[in-house]
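The following block was generated as part of the benchmark described in Methods. Ligand: adenosine monophosphate.
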Amino acid sequence: MFNLILFGPPGAGKGTQAVKIAEKYGWVHVSTGDILRSEVSQGTPLGLKVKAVMEAGTLVSDELLIEIMESVFRKNSKAGGFVLDGFPRTLKQAKELEGMLEKLGTKVSLVLSLEVESEELAKRMLKRAQEQGRKDDTEEVIKNRLVQYHQHTKPLIEYYESKNLLKNLMGMGTIEDIFESLCREIPV
Ligand code: AMP
C-alpha cells in the first residue's frame, strides 16, 4: 500500500493533482475538504456542525477529522494506495494518522509538498471562487485560511522532514508540468 500525502497551502493545486495521481496509479483519493463539503450540502448532522467553521476558513476539530479518516480507512482497507489531500493539517492529525495506518499494517510512504507564492495563491483562490462558487474563497476568508495554514499546518513540513519523508516541489507552471514533476518523485 502506497500512502502519499499531497501537502501545501490552500490554492496550491493539491486537489487537481491528487485526482490525476489517483487516476494514474489506481489509488484512493481522499479529500477531507470534499468530504466535509458534501456533508454540508446534504445537511447531515456532521455537516451542520462544521458549516460555520468552514465558511469562516477555520479548521474543523481534530476529533471530527480523525473520525472521518478512521471511517475512510475502514471502508478502503484493501486499497492499493491513498492520496491524501487536505489531511493531515495539524500535528495531532499527523500523529493519529500514523496509528491509523499502523492498524492497516502500513505507514506514510511519501509527502510531496507543493510550494506556491502567497500572491499567486490568493489569485488562484479568487479565480476558483468565480468558477466554482466556493463560499470560503472570498478575500476575507482566504486570508484566514492562509493564517490557519501558517499557524497549524506549515509546522508539519519540519515534522515530515525530520522523518525523511518530505520532498519539496514548485507548484508553479502548467498542471501537466507539475503533474510530471510529482510523478517523477513517486517510486512506483
Ligand atoms: P480544503 O478543500 O482542503 O481547502 O478544505 C476546506 C475546509 O475544510 C478547510 O478550510 C477546513 O475548514 C476544513 N478542513 C478540510 N480538511 C481539514 C483538516 N484536515 N482539518 C481541519 N479542517 C479541515
